[in-house]
Amino acid sequence: MQTLTLPRPDDWHLHLRDGAMLQAVLPETARHFARAIVMPNLVPPVVTLDDARAYHDRIMATLPPGMAFQPLMTLYLTEGTDPADVERAAASGLVKAVKLYPAGATTNSQSGVRDLAKVMPVLETMARIGLPLCTHGEVTTPEVDIFDREAVFIDTVLDPLRRRLPELRVVMEHITTEEGVAYAAQGGENLAATITTHHLILNRNHILAGGIRPHYYCLPVAKRERHRLALRRAATSGNPCYFLGTDSAPHVDALKEAACGCAGCFTATNTLSLLAHVFEEESALDRLEGFVARHGPAFYRLPVNTATITLEKRPDPCTWPEKIVSGSGPVTVFNPGFPVHWHVVT
Length: 346
Ligand code: NCD
Ligand code: ZN
Prior knowledge:
Elements: E1 2-7, E2 10-14, H1 19-30, E3 35-38, H2 49-62, E4 70-76, H3 83-92, E5 95-100, H4 120-129, E6 133-135, H5 149-164, E7 170-172, H6 178-185, E8 191-195, H7 204-208, H8 225-235, E9 242-244, H9 253-256, H10 271-281, H11 288-300, E10 308-313, E11 323-326, E12 329-332, E13 342-344
Parallel strand pairs: 2-3, 3-4, 4-5, 5-6, 6-7, 7-8, 8-9
Antiparallel strand pairs: 1-10, 10-13, 11-12
Helix pairs in contact: 3-4
The structure holds N-carbamoyl-L-aspartate and zinc ion.
């Protein structure tokens, strides 16, 4: 039997939602992860320090007794965001990043940014104080094919922004392409990229071939196989510019299995087992620790967790609930489509 003991991992991109959904999904993350960067795309969004403080308190009030978990809060950047509020939010220690959603790019992004010029004072403040910007890196122009939106964002939005503000610390969230992998690698110490679990497993055939699979639909949408392979090489490379952000994004089945189904894969429950499987396939189990527990804290200038987690490879495959039951309905747990033998034991 093989065992693997790592510092307790962190999730650098997570959707926890609110209310009944928060209650259902929070234990799924807190069971394995010490901290997570919590996305602010609630309705209405988490825009100000006061919003973030109130959301933080709701998360902590929902955490089951005996579980240790620290939510790292983010602010949702809008064209009305006040630079002084952002500076106070960073100084409070509660807020660890600001999230850029191009308006219309994804779930609950309608309050996002239409014109980057309008948020330059906020970005300049963030560059000065070292507060990271997390980007949903897709353009929203209808003329741009959905499979090209990440590459076009890098060329037309991200690269010009970083040339204009080289001191701005940026996390390219949930990269899905060779272009994203390559751009992150050449960006120096102010640039990093998160990679999700599901993008290491899925290519676009999994969504569309042999029937449409709504539970594999997320944004950015999974791309061709060569992009998935580039993401696998990046995640397992040991390069500290890449780290885990699951983008675990729960939606009730009724909203996923619909004529216009919404985007998001719910992977909190089985992410660590799946990652151990992927890293073993890539002969890189020794690099899992960097990806899930060391590179993220290094970029966010936080200590590595002292608590640990242990995984064991067993002959019997892992079993998970097919669905997590929430007060607003069932949420389907990501099904990788193959057996996984790495059990999280502590
Ligand atoms: C996310 C969600 O549901 O909030 N969905 C997704 O497909 N990833 C939003 C996001 O991160 O784009
Ligand atoms: Zn997300």
